[in-house]
Amino acid sequence: MTTISYEEFERVDLCSGTIIKVEEFPRAKKPAYKVWADFGAEIGILQTSAQVTIHYTHKSLMGRQIVGCVNLGEKNIAGFKSQFLLVGFSDERGAICLITVDPKVQNGQKMC
Prior knowledge:
The protein is mainly beta. It has helices at residues 6-10, 40-43, 58-61, and strands at residues 14-24, 33-38, 45-50, 65-69, 75-77, 80-82, 85-86, 88-90, 96-98. The chain is globular.
């Protein structure tokens, strides 16, 4: 385990958002979706690629409130611009289980 300072942790923007659009992503190397999330008025709508097809369908993702890291910069994934990191944990098979918010909070709230 690597230790970081509290000041370093404060620089990571983990924010609440709501998934508003999901599409298949056939160009991805591993099965993935293109996901768009609304992070509120200040941050706006951001998009990402997410390898979450084992536990989630289009329908189960739509409207789900999630946690995303929104200040990592953009990354090109198979020609698709990824603007945030959708965060979760790996289960025993390595499939991603998303971190969610319960009860719901306003989009764009920074994790504290």
